[in-house]
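Person: At home tonight, work slowly through the protein below, taking as long as you need, and write a paragraph about the fold.
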Amino acid sequence: MQDIMKLCDVVRQTDYDIHLCHAHGHLEKVYENALVHRLAKLGLRVKQQERLTVRDEDGTVIGAFVADLFVEDCLIVELKATKSIEEEHIAQILGYLRASRVEHGLLINFGSARFQIKKHVLTDPRKGGRMAGVGMVFTNLLFSVVSFASFRG
């Protein structure tokens, strides 16, 4: 768990540095490219526009979605360039976590003058906080949302 927290800290700081350098007003793709560039320079494995499989509870593939970034094969990063983070953005990142069975995600908004980043963790309390296997029934999952911070730029 400590490694994922360190990874989130690195991504968070890198995002904030991008915010300080470029401010708000660019398209989402500009921030995505900047983040990929900077994280790769730090030696992290970053997959851009990564297609992740959606499986039914019995493991059958029922579709796919495209994550903005998939960092170190354990962290989904969803970027926005909007006035504020809305409920549908939160639903999107939680849906991605559920569908892919990835436990950690960051939702980052570069679009407002105030930098916004939120960490989302999808846990299964019956499994000691870890995601369960393919047959997991998601109706019993507990969602917890932790806001890192909002920074003024």
Summary: The beta strands are 46-55, 61-71, 75-80, 104-109, 114-123, 142-152. Residues 2-152 form one domain. Residues 131-153 have pLDDT under 50 and may be disordered.
